[in-house]
């Protein structure tokens, strides 16, 4: 078994299992958290309005205009990453194979029958933009004294785990610095390392961000706070 076979076989199976188990473990842990009952009378009974916080906090307020540039970089990176993961044909085919292990084949075929894809050149450009955004975001985190003070190992490790698959994917696509099979194996292994790290670091915000904002909004609305 060579490195590519290992990356496509045992390593992928282990990484997928750890990722799924880790996500389930984190979500179940959140659901089982004990909350202290609020016995005070609600100032605003329309608590459902607090769910609007999920949308309003996705746009920077004018009081925080200084952070708008970094937030734009963050959105740009996420859009580029979404395109690379879900609109690149080899990635889509891999996603189909993974989902067929958990869902009925007709359901998966129906979902991906009209799934759009982008050409490799366009996705290479989007990957380059995402990498550039990540580099600028890291520099801002290191240079800004407040960001540097509140940053910890998780922030830098999550950054490294995110940018590595993008860089190795670009190298494999352009056949740079070595044989294609080796570059492809390294790229797949870097993705699998990201999958293993994902549930246990701050990247888990993909599953928790909107839920946390919704709960916070409901609590603030109950207390009569201005959202």
Give the helices and strands, then pairings.
Blueprint: H1 3-8, H2 10-31, H3 53-56, H4 68-86, H5 89-100, H6 105-111, H7 120-143, H8 145-150, H9 153-173, H10 180-197, H11 205-223
Describe it for me?
The chain is mostly helical and 227 residues long. It has one domain (3-223): Fumarate Reductase Cytochrome B subunit, CATH 1.20.950. Helices cover 70% and strands 0% of the residues. The protein has 11 helices and no strands. It has helices spanning 3-8, 10-31, 53-56, 68-86, 89-100, 105-111, 120-143, 145-150, 153-173, 180-197, 205-223. Helix 7 runs antiparallel to helix 9. The longest helix has 24 residues, at 120-143. The protein is globular. It starts with a helix and ends with a helix. The relative contact order is 0.17. The model has no long low-confidence stretch (mean pLDDT 85).
Relevant terms:
227 residues; globular; Fumarate Reductase Cytochrome B subunit
* H-E string: HHHHHHHHHHH
By CATH reckoning, the class would read Mainly Alpha
Bulk shape: globular
Helix content estimate: 55-70%
Low-confidence stretches: none
Q: How many β-strand runs?
A: 0
The CATH topology, please?
Fumarate Reductase Cytochrome B subunit
Query: By helix and strand content, what is the structural category?
Result: mainly alpha
Radius of gyration: 21 Å
Number of helices: 11
Strand content: under 5%
Largest sheet: none
The CA-CA distance between the termini, in Å, is 57 Å
CATH architecture annotation? Up-down Bundle
Number of domains: 1
Mean pLDDT: 85
